[in-house]
Amino acid sequence: MEEAKQVAAEDNVSLNQLLSAFIADGIGHRRAIMTLKKRAERGDPAAALAILDRAPNVKPDAGDELTGEVKSAAKPKT
User: Fold this and answer.
1) 5, 8, 50, 59 — which has fewest CB within 10 A?
2) 26-32 long-range CB contacts below 8 Å, 24 or more apart?
3) Is-contact 34 26, C-beta < 8 A?
4) CA dist 66 to 16, 34, 63, 73, Å?
5) Would you write out the chain's pLDDT as a tens digit for each of its 78 residues?
6) How far is CA 62 from CA 7, 58, 65, 72, 73, in A?
7) Rounded distance between C-alpha atoms, residue 12 and residue 9, angstroms
8) How many other CB atoms sit within 10 Å of the CB of residue 20?
9) Contact partners, residue 61, CB within 8 Å, separation at least 6
10) Using CB atoms within 10 A of its CB, is residue 8 exposed (0-12), middle (13-18) or buried (19+)?
11) What is the sign of the dihedral through the CA atoms of 47, 49, 55 and 56?
């Protein structure tokens, strides 16, 4: 509670305004997650892989290359 009061003071808002904003933000995040879960349920992994199989095997445009950890994580495991 003390930390919430401090944050409210730093943001120059009342504690009620701060908590209301946090609640609204949390509800928005929850709604977004639920929407993504519903969309994921409709997904078809086989269709997605078929689309990727049709993608040409070309070098990426300059600046789009994978680097560092991303590059090692993207390598297929055999």
Assistant:
1) 59
2) none
3) no
4) 46, 31, 9, 10
5) 999 999 999 999 999 999 999 999 999 999 999 999 999 999 999 999 999 999 999 999 999 988 877 666 666 655
6) 44, 12, 7, 19, 20
7) 5
8) 12
9) none
10) middle
11) negative
DSSP track, 7-69: HHHHTTS-HHHHHHHHHHHHHHHHHHHHHHHHHHHH--HHHHHHHHHHS---PPPTT----HH
- Amino acid identity of residue 57, one-letter, is N
For 33, the token pair is 């997650």
Q: Which residue has the tokens 């943001």?
A: 11
